[in-house]
């Protein structure tokens, strides 16, 4: 039976153009998938897009297209980027795919039938752009969304919830006693922040928007985010659908890779869902940090569209080649930690490792074989004790890199390979082939040195190929290696290239970048892009457009409107209604002898904010009792992203004036 390997990226929100930050996980998973294929595994590498939700519904409305039309365009951009970056995914899931929708409905129903999902009410501070409810303690220092720092508003709605507490003990053990979570050091914060205080039930449906998977047995609700999104890892294999039949073959996943902001969902909610469905748990969750950018105040910030500091991978790829970009992002980020992106770091890295290190090793070796032997090595050789030490370093690389790849430590895998590259460059300095080349009697020694170097290049380039898949075949062409010479089982032995191997001088693999000129030019391009993105964002923020799409109520006639009598009134007294957090009781001078109105604005106004102010009163509304208190009419207020705001009236307008 062949060995199987299943690896996934998160599914991305197609709410804006993909950027270098999105590339990290995908390039990392691609490299691991390629490495495992090289090792002979039958690999399933899954990526895709998470296409439902209010944010998408809103963006589509802003552009006057349907949500599906909106996501289709962006999904296309993601796919173009992945093809540009040489991402070898085996399957691409879109959560709008019919088979996924069908499976999510079945999963939701199963969880409901098993008693893990129940109906309740959700209330809290809601951030519309992030589609997230937050508790007061999670809000930032200005009382705004902790993620995008925009204002939140109070919201409440009927919703389904998933019980989390039945799984708490098993999840704690999973995080602390197994090697599911990588790096495991992050288990402490998850356990202390979420499990120890008691796992809160998860809100799993919404009624406030429609762009989602409808709950099959209650179509007022759409499935909210995580049951829809996380299920992709199994629906894409054919779980609860007949589109694919790979579930038994590939589940459980070997590696889910995600960034730290969605660690909690993959470390707690996903295992809970699988436990509730009686399914085996994935083997590993690898969590990396963010690609960050230096912010205005000098601190680094996550690269993200909502901060307007994104770097366009196409701009970089066009200048330095996709492999250099892949190498740079993989080499800089240690599992679990953030990595700062800057043009300086990138260019220095490309110059030092790729141009001077690896590129130079290949070009020097090939050039010397060409110069001293016309390209074909003679078979007469003379070895030296030094060769054995050199060979053992190079032969140690493959098992070391295997280990790092298995632990999802890509930075370390690349560091190990580049130690081999440095060792090879040092071997050139030690053996001084240019001196050997001058003396005919030393040609057998020179041939041995060059052959050893070509073998070192064969092994290091084959190990690098999963990370830099475009460039390495060019190396093989130059060193005269056939496809079978670079197969995995030949990476732990020397003497694979033919004794009389012929090299072919070729193009420079990684041209050296003129750092001073390039950094200035590139900084300029990126600064302009960023300024444009930030200007667009602040325009969006400052604009008059409200956060949610406007849906008008059915049309009325002027006669209908005439039935509503709106009059100016002045607040003469005001107090909180006892035992209510929400209600204020206002005494109004309405020009008709005065009246009392109860209004649900206590969270937004203190009584003293209102006393003495003039406002608009719906004067002919039928009286009601609220919390046992009489209310004769209603005051007009607006719903805004910052909460409810009373419509005050200019003090010069007399009380009792009719508003029309
Ligand atoms: N749709 C959810 C994931 C659902 S998975 C079942 C989502 N999408 S996302 O598009 O916002 O982000 C996808 C991944 O990209 C996340 O892991 C996120 O952290 C990652 N990144 C987005 N910007 C990033 C950086 N600047 N750096 C590294 N990763 C970044 O979350």
- Cα distance spanning the termini: 80 Å
Bound molecules: 5'-O-[(L-methionyl)-sulphamoyl]adenosine
Beta-strand proportion? 15-25%
Find the count of extended strands (DSSP E, 2+ residues). 25
CATH class descriptor name of the domain at 342-490:
Mainly Alpha
- Structure class: alpha/beta
The appropriate CATH architecture of the domain at 342-490 is Orthogonal Bundle
Major sheet: arrangement of strands? 3-2-1-11-12-7
Q: Biggest β-sheet, characterized?
A: 6 strands, parallel
Radius of gyration: 32 Å
Helix content: 40-55%
Helix count from the secondary structure assignment: 22
CATH topology of the domain at 342-490: Isoleucyl-tRNA Synthetase, Domain 1
Q: What are the segments in which pLDDT stays under 50 over at least 5 consecutive residues?
A: 541-549
Mean pLDDT: 91
Global shape? elongated
Q: Features of this protein?
A:
660 residues; alpha/beta; Isoleucyl-tRNA Synthetase, Domain 1; OB fold (Dihydrolipoamide Acetyltransferase, E2P); 6-stranded parallel beta sheet; 6-stranded antiparallel beta sheet; elongated; binds 5'-O-[(L-methionyl)-sulphamoyl]adenosine
Show the helix and strand layout:
Blueprint: E1 4-12, H1 20-38, E2 42-49, H2 54-63, H3 67-84, E3 91-94, H4 98-113, E4 117-127, E5 132-134, E6 153-162, H5 168-177, E7 181-182, H6 187-195, E8 202-203, E9 205-206, E10 222-223, H7 226-230, H8 232-235, H9 247-250, E11 255-259, H10 263-276, E12 284-288, E13 291-294, E14 300-302, H11 313-320, H12 322-332, E15 339-340, H13 343-373, H14 385-395, H15 397-406, H16 410-431, H17 433-436, H18 443-464, H19 472-479, H20 515-542, H21 558-562, E16 566-576, E17 584-589, E18 595-599, H22 607-610, E19 614-618, E20 624-626, E21 629-631, E22 634-635, E23 637-640, E24 643-646, E25 658-659
Parallel strand pairs: 1-2, 1-11, 2-3, 7-12, 11-12, 13-15
Antiparallel strand pairs: 4-5, 4-6, 6-8, 9-10, 13-14, 16-17, 16-19, 16-25, 17-18, 19-22, 20-21, 23-24
The chain binds 5'-O-[(L-methionyl)-sulphamoyl]adenosine.
The site of 5'-O-[(L-methionyl)-sulphamoyl]adenosine (MSP) has 21 residues, from β1, α1, α7 and β11.
């Amino acid at each position: 039976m062949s060995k199987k390997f299943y690896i996934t990226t998160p599914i991305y929100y197609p709410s804006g153009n993909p950027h270098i930050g999105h590339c990290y996980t995908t390039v990392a998973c691609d490299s691991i998938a390629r490495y495992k294929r090289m090792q002979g595994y039958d690999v399933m590498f899954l990526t895709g897009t998470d296409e439902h939700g209010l944010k998408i519904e809103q963006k589509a409305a802003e552009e006057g297209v349907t949500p599906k039309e909106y996501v289709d365009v962006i999904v296309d951009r993601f796919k173009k980027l992945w093809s540009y970056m040489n991402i070898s995914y085996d399957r691409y899931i879109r959560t709008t795919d019919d088979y996924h929708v069908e499976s999510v409905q079945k999963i939701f129903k199963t969880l409901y039938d098993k008693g893990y999902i129940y109906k309740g009410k959700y209330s809290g501070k809601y951030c519309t752009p992030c589609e997230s409810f937050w508790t007061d303690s999670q809000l930032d220092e200005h009382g705004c969304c902790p993620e995008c720092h925009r204002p939140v508003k109070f919201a409440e709605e009927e919703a389904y919830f998933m019980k989390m507490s039945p799984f708490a003990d098993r999840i704690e053990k999973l995080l602390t006693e197994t090697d599911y979570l990588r790096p495991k050091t992050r288990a402490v914060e998850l356990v202390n922040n979420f499990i120890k205080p008691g796992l809160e039930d998860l809100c799993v449906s919404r009624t406030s928007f429609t762009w989602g998977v409808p709950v099959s047995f209650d179509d007022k609700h759409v499935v909210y985010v995580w049951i829809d999104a996380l299920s992709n890892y199994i629906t894409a294999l054919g779980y609860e659908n007949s589109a694919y039949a790979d579930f038994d073959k590939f589940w459980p996943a070997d590696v889910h890779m995600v960034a730290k902001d969605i660690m909690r969902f993959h470390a707690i909610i996903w295992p809970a869902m699988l436990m509730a469905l009686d399914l085996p748990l994935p083997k590993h969750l690898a969590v990396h940090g963010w690609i960050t950018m230096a912010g205005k105040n000098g601190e680094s910030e996550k690269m993200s569209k909502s901060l307007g500091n994104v770097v366009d991978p196409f701009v970089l790829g066009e200048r330095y080649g996709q492999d250099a970009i892949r190498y740079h992002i993989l080499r800089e980020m240690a599992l679990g930690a953030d990595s700062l992106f800057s043009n300086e770091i990138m260019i220095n890295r490309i110059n030092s490792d790729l141009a001077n290190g690896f590129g130079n090793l290949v070009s020097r070796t090939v050039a010397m074989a060409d110069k001293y032997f016309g390209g074909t090595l003679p078979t007469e050789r003379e070895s030296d004790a030094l060769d054995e030490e050199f060979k053992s370093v190079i032969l140690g690389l493959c098992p070391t890199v295997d280990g790092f790849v298995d632990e999802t430590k890509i930075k370390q895998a690349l560091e190990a390979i580049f130690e081999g590259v440095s060792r090879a460059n040092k071997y050139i300095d030690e053996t001084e082939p240019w001196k050997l080349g001058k003396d005919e009697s030393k040609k057998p020694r020179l041939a041995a040195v060059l052959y050893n170097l070509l073998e070192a290049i064969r092994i290091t380039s084959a190990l690098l190929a999963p990370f830099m898949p475009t460039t390495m075949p060019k190396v093989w062409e130059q060193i005269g290696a056939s496809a079978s010479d670079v197969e995995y089982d030949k990476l732990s032995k020397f003497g694979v290239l033919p004794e009389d191997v012929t090299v072919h001088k070729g193009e420079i693999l990684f041209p050296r970048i003129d750092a001073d000129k390039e950094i200035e030019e590139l900084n300029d391009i990126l600064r302009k892009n960023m300024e444009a993105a930030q200007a667009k964002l602040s325009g969006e923020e400052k604009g008059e457009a409200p956060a949610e799409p406007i849906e008008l109520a059915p049309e009325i006639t002027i006669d209908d409107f005439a039935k509503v009598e709106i009059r100016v009134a002045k607040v003469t007294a005001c107090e909180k209604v006892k035992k209510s957090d929400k209600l204020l009781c206002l005494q109004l001078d309405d020009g008709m002898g005065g009246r009392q109105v109860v209004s649900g604005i206590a969270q937004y106004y203190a009584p003293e904010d209102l006393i003495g102010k003039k406002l608009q009163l719906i004067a002919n509304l039928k009286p009601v009792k609220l919390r046992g208190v009489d209310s004769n009419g209603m005051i007009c207020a607006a719903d805004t992203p910052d909460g409810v705001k009373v419509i005050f009236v200019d003090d010069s307008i007399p009380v009792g004036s009719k508003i029309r």
